[in-house]
Amino acid sequence: MANLRLTLCGLVMIALCGSAQADDSVPTHFLCDFDMGYAWSYDSGKFKSEPAKDLSFEIGNIDLEKQSATLIIDGKSANTLKIVRALNANTFLEVVNEGFLNMTTIYDRDPATGKYPAVHSRHFGLFGQPIFAQYAGNCAAKP
Question: Is the pLDDT assigned to residue 28 strictly greater than 60?
Answer without folding.
Answer: yes
